[in-house]
Amino acid sequence: MRPLLKPLLALAAGLTVALPALAAEMSPVGLWRTFDEKSGEPKSEVRISDSGGVLSGKVEKLLRKGADPKAVCDRCTDDRKGQPLVGLEIIRGAKKAEGKAVWEDGRILDPENGSTYSLKLTPADNGSKLDVRGSIGPFGRTQTWSRVE
User: Fold this and answer.
1) What is the Cα–Cα distance from 73 to 110, expressed in whole angstroms?
2) Tally of CB atoms within 10 A around 38
3) CA-to-CA distance for 94 and 80, rounded, in angstroms?
């Protein structure tokens, strides 16, 4: 039995190191690249952060060709009206669903039209992609964002 003990301990140690890293990759927390739905071109980078189990996300960089880095949210109707797009909080209040790798019950803002939508975030492809679903009732659309870091 002794010859088996050493490999089992090595395996346990490896899992102890690998599992937290794997769990971190399957979280929406991090920096994400968004894409224009029509052209497929990169649109922005959004950083999602966790504060006490509640996620928020801010636009960190505008990537669209010709985008004005000083642009503001003209169409927003809440406290974000007139705020610069860079630094704008577009994700608020998402929480992890119990027993699932899904974050929901939050809201996402589309700064192009000023509308907010119910939000569901689902990591995909081992955390390298994020399915971002915004909806009103049964109607909605899903975008896939790519992890930058």
Assistant:
1) 10
2) 6
3) 18
Distance from C-alpha of 102 to C-alpha of 132, rounded to nearest angstrom: 10
Secondary structure letter of residue 125 according to DSSP? G
The pLDDT of residue 3 is 54
Residue 132 near residue 119, CB atoms below 8 Å: yes
pLDDT tens by residue, 69-125: 999 999 999 999 999 999 999 999 999 999 999 999 999 999 999 999 999 999 999
41 residue type, one letter: E
pLDDT at 57 over 50: yes
Q: Which backbone phi and psi does 10 adopt, to 5 degrees?
A: -65, -40
- At position 21, the amino acid (one-letter code) is A
Q: Calculate the dihedral angle through the C-alpha atoms of 120, 105, 116, 145, rounding to the nearest 10 degrees.
A: -20
- Other CB atoms closer than 10 Å to residue 80's CB: what's the count? 20
